[in-house]
Amino acid sequence: MAGIFLDQLKKAPILCDGAVGTLLYAKGIFINRCYDELNISQPDLIREIHHDYLQSGAQIIETNTFGANSFRLERHGMADRVRDINLAGVQLARQAAKSFDVWIGGSVGPLGVRIEPLGKISLQEARKAFRDQIAALSEGGVDLLLLETFGYLEEIHQAAVDAARARGWRHVYFNSLTIPYWAIHVTAVVGIALTGFSWLGLSLALAFYVPRMFFVTGAYHRYFSHRSYKTSRWFQFVLGVGATLTAQKGPLWWAAHHRIHHKLSDEPGDLHSVKQSGFWWAHHGWLLARDLEDTDLSRIKDFARYPELVWLNRWWVIPPFALGTLTFVLGGFHVFTWAFCVCQVLCWHGTFTINSLSHLLGRRRYATSDDSRNHPVLALITMGEGWHNNHHHYQVSARQGFFWWELDATYYVLRGLAAVGLIWDLHGVPDHVRADRTEATHDGLVSRIRERSTKSERHDLTEGWRALVGRSSRS
Ligand SMILES: [Zn+2]
Ligand SMILES: [Zn+2]
Questions:
Q1: Cβ contacts of 448 within 8 Å, gap of 6 or more
Q2: 136, 370, 148: which is closest to 269 by C-alpha?
Q3: 399-441 confidence digits (pLDDT tens)
Q4: Which ligand sits closest to the CA of 395?
Q5: Residues 328-355: pLDDT tens digits?
Q6: d(Cα 110, Cα 68) in Å, to the nearest integer?
Q7: Where in the chain is the domain with CATH 3.20.20.330?
Q8: Which residue from 347, 356, 400, 437 has the highest number of Cβ atoms inside 10 Å of its Cβ?
Q9: CA 387 to ligand 1 center in whole angstroms
Q10: What CATH architecture does domain 5-173 belong to?
Q11: From the CA of 270, how far away is ligand 2's center (Å)?
Q12: Measured between alpha carbons, how far is residue 50 from residues 53, 89, 420 in Å?
């Protein structure tokens, strides 16, 4: 059942476990005890309850941490044990669920005190209490957070959800795996400052940028995600290696996630939608988040049957690491700075404009059900990907600039590769698809509005969950 939580939730109901406190009481623990502390003093009892729910078919196991915040623990003289108790709660759930394919939900309940203006506790103090608990649950490695049984709207909205989101932000951008990402950014800047500008450096950065960007768009995107042309097995592997040189994870990972973007464009569950999750998440948060590290091979069965691609997908970091090392060994620090670091940063953010800016800036030629747009500058930076509304309108096309004046450098390279026989069967754009500009018509607008309202009704439940869940998938 590995996969993305919100995506699974859309497909079918997910069965959560039930009350833990009630069962503890039934097992002889009187209500004057601190139930959360049992994670430490009676771990077997908690594991047993988790196990019973797992045996009954629960797909989410909640940690026994409903009251493990500093205010509630203070009543038992344990306000300083928030971290220990929450960490232990996650550990017990993980141990119980070891042989089950389930999510571990970090349970966060109300503070049990009144917050201003109804009570004496300030919003700031309340946020801190939630933040401390959520930090410990995240550190323990929960897959999602469940903010439950709140009777006071402001408390859940202004304190608990805020705390969960703040924690999510730090967790996304600053984790052990984002160290190389930020280190390359820093090296690019420091390298220029130390070794200075040179035309050779700039030329190298641009010379490396073009093939890299080609592999992003011609390989990751137009081949692995959309199969917009055919090729041989060996050249397919070359495309895969070329794509990984751009350090945007494995080709199967990239394509599997991209297919979700098209399936749910700008709707709940779209992994990089500005509309759903904000600019920075859409720009690069989704790529950095540890929660989305797994590749759902069921979404990319067509390529997952090639063992060499599965291998490359797992060890994607080898080609960019080798490239970085090679530029350093052959050219020294100055060449490494420009040809690898500066070029890499430009290639990353150039690519990421498609996830962020291409759903914000530019013109909509076609009445797609998302916010995709066409923008000539973005198309120039990304070798043709900026014709993003065209692409959402007709995804299988190898060509994203639909007209001769829409520059699409990737397509020109693909035509070149086809001319020498390395690839073939490039998908074109049928005339009726190119001419289907219903956006400006009354009927087009009406059908778009209808489609949107149906979709939003369908996703009401998911939206509700989204408000409650801090982290959206299994790690
Ligand atoms: Zn696409
Ligand atoms: Zn898009």
A1: 367, 369, 439
A2: 370
A3: 999 999 999 999 999 999 999 999 999 999 999 999 886 543 4
A4: 1
A5: 999 999 999 999 999 999 999 999 999 9
A6: 10
A7: 5-173
A8: 400
A9: 11
A10: Alpha-Beta Barrel (3.20)
A11: 10
A12: 5, 11, 61
